[in-house]
Task: structure prediction
Amino acid sequence: MTAHAAPAGSLLTATDLRKTYGPTHALDGAGFAIHPGEVVAIMGPSGSGKSTLLHCLAGIVTPDSGTITYAGRDLTAMSDRERSALRRSEFGFVFQFGQLVPELTCVENVALPLRLNGAGRRQAERTALDWMRKLEVDGLKDKRPGEVSGGQGQRVAVARSLVTGPRVVFADEPTGALDSLNGERVMQLLTEAARATNAAVVLVTHETRVAAYSDREIVVRDGRSRDMEHAI
Amino acid sequence: MSTLRTWSQDLRMGARFAFGGGREGWTRTLLTGIGVGLGAALLLLTTALPGALAARDLRSDARSTWTAPTAEKAGPGTLLFAEVQTTFRNQDLYGGQLRPEGPDAPLPPGLKRFPGPGELAVSPALKDLLGSPEGRLLRDRLDGPITQTISDDGLIGPGELAFYLGSDTLRDDSSVKRITGFANDIRPEKLDPVLMLLLVMVFVALLMPVAVFVAAAVRFGGEARDRRLAALRLVGADSRMARRIAAGEALAGAVTGLVLGAGFFYGVRQFADRFTVLDRSVFPADLTPSPWLAVLVALAVPVAAVAVTLFALRGVVIEPLGVVRTAKPARRRIWWRLVMPVAGLGLLVPLMGRGREHGDFNQWQVIGGVVLLLVGITAILPWLVEAVVSRLSGGGVAWQLAVRRLQLSSGTAARLVNGIAVAVAGAIALQMLFAGVESDYTKATGQDPSRAAMSVWVRGGQDPDTGIVEQVRTVSQKLRRAEGVTGVTPLTTVNAVAPKDPDRMTDLTIASCPSLREIADLPSCKDGDTFLLRGGYDDATAKALAVPGDRLLVGGSPEGAPPVSWTVPKGVRAVPARPDPAGTTRNGILATPGAAPQGRGVSGYSSVYVQLDPAAPDAMEQARTAAFKADPLATVMTLKSTEQSNRFASIRTGLYVGAVLVLLLIGASMLVSQLEQLRERKKLLSALVAFGTRRSTLSLSVLWQTALPIGLGLGLATATGLALGAVLMRMTAVPVSVDWASVAWMSGTGAAVVLLVTALSLPPLLRLMRPDGLRTE
Amino acid sequence: MYSRAMSIGHTLLALLETGPRHGYDLKRAFDDKFGHDRPLAYGQVYSTMSRLLKNGLVEVEGIEPGDGPDRKRYAITDAGITDVAAWLAQPEKPEPYLQSTLYTKVVLALLTGRSAQDLLDTQRAEHLRLMRILTTRKRKGDLADQLVCDHALFHLEADLRWLELTAARLDQLAQEVRR
Result:
């Protein structure tokens, strides 16, 4: 039930991941696979290990055992520095909240990943503004995160996750703090923008209406994953 | 009556919030408490210092022989006492040779009985040193059996190196006192006005930052408090009530701080005897705050805490749904901030040009002026930080993060740096003043360390059977044998008087040709020659006495050693004098041993110059030991080119120690607030790490965030310090010159604090940057 | 394909999987657990059992003599067990007011020692399949489409949330059912 043969053409695959935090088995043999341009939802009850799975896939935490392969490279064998560089250049991130730097203006927040990659300030902010326009928040460029609404802030965060042209976007409950309308809007913009750039999206959510924006879902329960496409 | 009740009710409620707000509330109160406590402990320490110094003086007087009652003849209650001075590495030892002459001889404080001949009584610190491998060389010098430990009442401080050496050969002569008790009632001379000014400045410059620091500490976690006050307004408290509750909270924090401060103080006091700062150590029992000052501290700290809190809330309207800072949108205005420093200068300028000769300064005017000037810094700095930071842009990500953060909360940053700025401004001004007056208080000794590293001064007449010449020969031989000694130049001087007119007196210096060349320019010299020095202090008498064929009486002493008769040989040549290695120009007649008077009982003194091998690390100690063994009463001096007034040096030392302490204290408070800030941003930091932010970027931004305000603070402090220094120098009528070394030193210390704070906040930062922060449950 | 008759057939079959029963026992067990306000007519049990017997899904284990109604004792066959498993694994077509069928399935999965969570996951996948179609239609359609699709989506979501809750309460439910 947990074993996944890495399907041909997968961008990011993981097999038999195990991770414990103290006595709790956050992951207990979970697997995952995603293709370029695909949107995959990770679902499951709270505490099931879905966030941990996302963190492992994104190279934020290293699993105790198991393999993660991204574009032919073994993520678990990489150094922290290499994984950071990978996250900076190839991955994008959206979280539920607390991710925008409160002191920076919105456009500076969006430009941040580019600048971390060494881009110049002017160039980075120009690219950032393009993305803000696509997400319909370019009017907020000089506002600080504290001055915009939750939905707007989350769209700024989505713009930031896409600004480097990532091949995978990791979204951890991106609509968790939003009302239905704003949540739908954020999901629509995120998935459309990702599809337009052929980026894969790994979406952790507990809401089925949000998961309905995915192509496929994986259920995580007690640290084990179940790919519902193959189950039926 | 009812107002009193509402007040006490609200204050009590505030206190409850301070302690009852769950874990977070507790932490905040504890942080405030620790901050205030550190400040209070420093204040208590300051109040205890005068008492501690007085206690040291008291014990020092009790064992002194300065004004001790003396006796002419040996009796049952007399003691022969000779002060023995020796130095080990850079530490001076206090020592005395004791020879009781009867059963009732006065015992020095700290001893239970007199050490027997050759036996040692040592202080605990010296005992430890002698027993340790580092003290091995000293043990060679003090090699007698240790039979007693000097107790605390015989010591100035716990770290003092002191010893008493028993003797049965000590005789009453010029360097030995026959005493019937110990005492010193000579009061030190009154500090002159300039030294007084320096002392006042040191205290002001050190205590001001502490006050600033305490003020900053009561505002730890101000944002959380504001939120709580807003919540109170929501449930129906009016705005005055909210303010009183805030005051109650501050009061609780301050009182906690006082309790902690007392705890810190007594904690430090327990271990006071373990620390030796610049050769000085203090007994715990000596560190007792004077009651009135302690009460003052206990009252001033809470009052200040409440005042600061209410002052900080002056521009704040606490609304039920949040706190509105009316003061915020209005840009900080500069004019009223300039009033204080200008007023301070106004008080000081009239005092300019007075100097030492024109009597005392009005202390209060000086203190007032300096305090206003330094407090002025704390008023200007927030404005400056805001003005500068709002114009900053560009730069890398780390810089951008730091600048933006400062733009949002420049006030917090400035408050923290205020303390450092005040301390540095005060210290720079003082250092300038020190450097300026240094020439007045630092004597050029005229000593030439390149010719000889040390001089050993030997007094003759200790043994009636041995003449000074013989005595010195023995000492020289022993010195020559010491490891690392490359050259020994003995010069023996005795007096020579005309037989008929004892008032006509000159010096006769007996030494070998090479030795004589150290004090005169000799065209040629062989044993048997005699010379007359030209350029001494009394050439006329010398010339009149140095008539070849005339008889002179040489080597007599007041203690009764009989002089010997000496005929001035033929062929006395006049030669120009040159300063000896100690910088003294000699006087009188020079004789080589072949021409010198023979016979015992020639008493006088001898200075032996010793050259050392610079490559031998312990040469100095070996030579000191050799000199001590050869003659315990010999005075050994290290030749140095300059010498400072002792009192002056100790003020300067006090300033250095105090400035470092204050900077560390402020560093601690910056660290505390830095950590508080980091904890608040746990989630954000994790998110930043998730999308690949380098640890170095975030670390660098923390560094900038500390370095920027401190850099500005140091800049302002340097400017203020230089201005203040210039005014103070004009006041003391010293030409104004900038002591860049001290500016660099102080700025460097400030920079070191920045680095230290950053370095210490890095481990928690890196820990917070772990992805665990992303886990929501 | 999913008629109520079919569903009753599977329910009775699954009940038999827990052990052989008489026809009347079956009716009582059904009424007890699922009947609530609509008890099963005995005639329906009789006809259903005949059909299952004919299809080889049950067999008659024995007939006890005596008066009264049918004293036949039915037992499930291997083919019957396979049929129950297939039925439980087959997600229901997402449609409003599915609860009774889903509830029946959950209870029976538990009664027969199968994983109810698998069942719920399967059902969620089936729901999501429809919801994806609705979401796509919503994204491409006009306002009217959006409103209509939203209505359907919210109902489907409500089903699933009930399902999630049911999953979360399985332990309690299991104890209750096995009592």
In short: The beta strands of chain C are 21-22, 58-63, 72-76.
